[in-house]
Amino acid sequence: MSTTLFRNSVIRTALRHGSTATSKPAGMAGVSFVRGKATLPDLPYDYGALEPAISGKIMELHHKNHHNTYVTSYNTFNDQFAEASARADTAAQIALQPLINFHGGGHLNHSLFWENLAPKSQGGGEPPSGALKKAIESTWGGLDQFKTEFNTALAGIQGSGWAWLVKDRKTGNVDIQTYANQNPVVGKYIPILGIDAWEHAYYLQYQNRKAEYFKAIWDVINWKTAEKRFGN
Q1: CA distance 65 to 203
Q2: Can you tell me the distance from the alpha carbon of 216 to that of 53, in angstroms, rounded to the nearest whole number?
Q3: 109-123 CB burial, b ≥16 within 10 A, e <16
Q4: Interatomic CA distance for residues 10 and 227, integer angstroms
Q5: Using CA atoms, how far apart are residues 131 and 123, in angstroms rounded to an integer?
Q6: Which residues touch 112 (CB under 8 Å, ≥6 apart)?
Q7: Is residue 16's pLDDT more than 70?
Q8: How far apart are CA 47 and CA 50, in angstroms?
Q9: 86, CA 20 to 30 Å: which among 52, 68, 75, 145?
Q10: Could you count the other beta carbons within 10 Å of the beta carbon of residue 60?
């Protein structure tokens, strides 16, 4: 099996595993589907609830425009792939696979990202506790050291991409991994916490001062969600 075909299969499997037969209730972000179609998840907070760390305008554009584009494009290309498969058009299937990977990955990444955030009134920015806290302390020495390492990884991304706190499925160890473009965390690692380093996530507010965005976003990180992912 080719690498491209394998990645397409993995992403589509991950999307299915993160799906439900119907969309999730309003206010619950997550990877959601209706009758096999990806759907844009509702946010569990208002667009302006993360200010001043992230402006309401950025959140609205990021969610309603950018994420929605990934959802609609994934559905379109997935339908085209099914049609190509039905007529045994191998060339068309190969051509569509990178598009499915990109837009499907964008849907996965953003669905997880919204859950990684919370207003301060809902616990955003409160430090982790329990097993995840211990894992971070044993790996990096403490939360501040972890943030420094994570922000260094974010700053090192060339072009567009993501940085993730991940958990190794076999060892249970935590690590920081970066992914280009919209490549999702699949396979060896479980995604625990991710930060979007694409310009559309910060430029309207921070312009070329992305280091300020990387610093400010920790004020609205939802560690409770990260703890649940780590424990699963």
Answers
A1: 15
A2: 5
A3: bbbbbbbbbbbeeee
A4: 25
A5: 18
A6: 31, 191, 194
A7: no
A8: 7
A9: 68
A10: 14
Q: Are 190 and 147 in contact (CB under 8 A)?
A: no
The rounded percent of the chain whose pLDDT value lies above 90 is: 84
Among the residues of 27-89, which ranges form H helices?
Answer: 56-60, 68-86
Q: Which tokens go with 208?
A: 């070329």
Contact predicate 160/181, CB 8 Å: yes
AA identity, residue 25: P
CA dist., res. 85 & res. 81, Å (int): 6
Whole-angstrom Cα distance, residue 34 to residue 193?
A: 26
Neighbours of 180 (CB within 10 A): 12
Joined tokens for residue 72? 């609609």
Measured between alpha carbons, how far is 217 from 52 in angstroms, rounded to an integer?
Answer: 9
Structure tokens at 64: 């309603």
Residue type present at position 171: T
How many other CB atoms are found less than 10 A from the CB of residue 78?
20
Contacts for 145 with CB less than 8 Å, ≥ 6 apart: none
Residue 196 has pLDDT above 60, yes or no: yes
Q: Average per-residue pLDDT in the chain?
A: 89
